[in-house]
C-alpha cells in the first residue's frame, strides 16, 4: 500500500517508518522541519515538507501523493504547552481529514490518548465516555482529543489508537527527558492516581497492525495500570533519583485503561507487558 505518515520523525513515527517499509509498503513521511527530511529518507521513505497547520499545503500534498492510507501521528510535545498540542489535534487533524477526503483516501489511523476518559474506579474500557465535563485546564486536552477523534471518524475506514503514557527513546521519561529531570529534583509526588504506560516500540507495532483492524477506537496500553505510589518510586530507583514524596491525592481521570480489546479481540501483544521491565530496558539502552 501507499501510506502517508504524518509526524514521521516523532518518537513513534521514526520507529514506524522502517516497519512499514520492511512490510513492502510505499511510505511517505511528512514533517514540518526541513532539517529532518534526510532522516526520513534514511529510514527508507520519501519525504514531504508540510506544516500541518497550513491547510492549503496539506491539501496540495495529499492531492499529489494520493496515498491509500494516512497514519496520523501528529503531536506537539516538545514542551508542556497543552494548548499547542490541542491545536495540532483540532486544526491539524481537521486539515488532514479534509485533505484526505478530497484526495480519495478511505483509511486513516490516528494517535489519541487513553487518559481522556471520564472519572471511574476501574481501568477504562473503550465503551466508557470521554471526559466531556472536564474543567480547565484538563478541558483543553479533552476538547482536542474529542475534535481529533470525531474528525478521523468521518473517514470510511478509521482506527483510533488510544495510547498509554509513552516511554522509551526520545520521550519525557528517557535520559535527560523533561519528566526525568523533574523526578531527579523531587518535583513530582507519588500519588494514588492510576496511569497506564506504553513503550514506544509497542506503539509503533500497534500502528502497523492497525492497517488491518476494523473501525473504532482501541486502548493501546500495557498490562499493568498502576498508582503513582507504585510506579514512580520504581522509576526513580531505576534512574538513580531520590525517592519521591508520597501524597494521598489523585487528579481527575487518573484511572488507567484496559487493553482487553486489543489483546483479546485484535491479538495485539505488547513486547513490554509491564512498565517494570520496560523502564529497566529502555533506561539501560
Automatic annotation (TrEMBL):
<dbReference type="GO" id="GO:0005737">
    <property type="term" value="C:cytoplasm"/>
</dbReference>
<dbReference type="GO" id="GO:0004029">
    <property type="term" value="F:aldehyde dehydrogenase (NAD+) activity"/>
</dbReference>
<feature type="domain" description="NAD-dependent epimerase/dehydratase">
    <location>
        <begin position="3"/>
        <end position="216"/>
    </location>
</feature>
<dbReference type="InterPro" id="IPR051783">
    <property type="entry name" value="NAD(P)-dependent_oxidoreduct"/>
</dbReference>
<dbReference type="Pfam" id="PF01370">
    <property type="entry name" value="Epimerase"/>
</dbReference>
<dbReference type="InterPro" id="IPR001509">
    <property type="entry name" value="Epimerase_deHydtase"/>
</dbReference>
<dbReference type="InterPro" id="IPR036291">
    <property type="entry name" value="NAD(P)-bd_dom_sf"/>
</dbReference>
<protein>
    <submittedName>
        <fullName>NAD(P)-dependent oxidoreductase</fullName>
    </submittedName>
</protein>
